Predict the structure of Bis(5'-adenosyl)-triphosphatase.
Amino acid sequence: MLSCLLRGGCSPLLCLWALLLPPLVSLHSMNQHGRRSHSAKERPKLLLVSFDGFRWDYIDRVPTLNFHNIIDNGVMVEHVENVYITKTYPNHYSLVTGLYAETHGIVANEMYDPVLNRSFSMETDSVYESRWWEAAVPLWVSIQKAGGRSGAAMWPGSDVKIHGMFPNRYLLYNASVSFETRVERLIEWFSAPNEAAVDFGVLYWEEPDESGHKLGPESPLMDVVIAGIDEKLGFLMNELKKAGLYEKVNLIVTSDHGMTQLSSDKIIELDEYVSRDLYTWVDKSPVVALLPKEGKLDEIYDKLVDVNPNMVVYKKEDIPELFHYQHNVRIMPILIAAKEGWTVMQNRTGPFMRMYSKLI
Ligand SMILES: [Zn+2]
């Protein structure tokens, strides 16, 4: 579904910029019976924006006047720690539910649920199956149940019926829809007359993640990409001003994870150590999820646990508690975490290496 090709090597830190324009974000405009106690005009409004894979240090790589304009007029937090694992779907669902992945149930971009006996992939229509999402309640559903209205432009999960609801206004995911079009739709929804106006909006953009995966975050070519993101932010601010929304809409700009440079010299090939006949490969590096064939868990673990110092192999029950990544049937019995800068794959003939060889 999303066009991110490789999830490998995301760093554990990301950065968040927030511009909080008065009035502060609050749901106090809903009364105790969950009904609207203020007119749509008076209710506080919030737009949450995510630039996928915007690494913490990108903001200082090139002049980013629009980001700095927001920081100067609002607030910037020093850092935000993403949830484990550092992938797009789990983190975007955490941002709108406040929950760790093990609790909200979107534990990876690629998942297998042994109870449902179904697989989930962000590359297939499985993302539209409500049951994957319904362990949690995203903000747009909470707001609508409280009497508010919401609008969504491509945020992961926002075009899925969850607990019987879509956002009041939303776009079906389509990577070819430009950032500018997404912004224009949101501006329309926030500007709609009276009770038709949305109170909460979410906006997702695939960059700089997509270019970061293709070029590597350390590439000098990323400078142009980062400057382009700053221009997009400038476009959003201008559109808010033109529509008279700048003083009315609270804005949070954030990201889902960082990114680290990988190398074709830092590849771990599982085929060297264990036969792929013993397991099903469920999710890919940097945190690989393996589903062992019946009775093969200990054999796989024993073959992998000490063979390479650049990966950490966990049985599910041994995953550290601080990761909050254990208590869900969709978390597989064996997890392999690549150390920073390393990639775990079955062998070098996989899609990662085909892509990598095109770039070097
Ligand atoms: Zn992402």
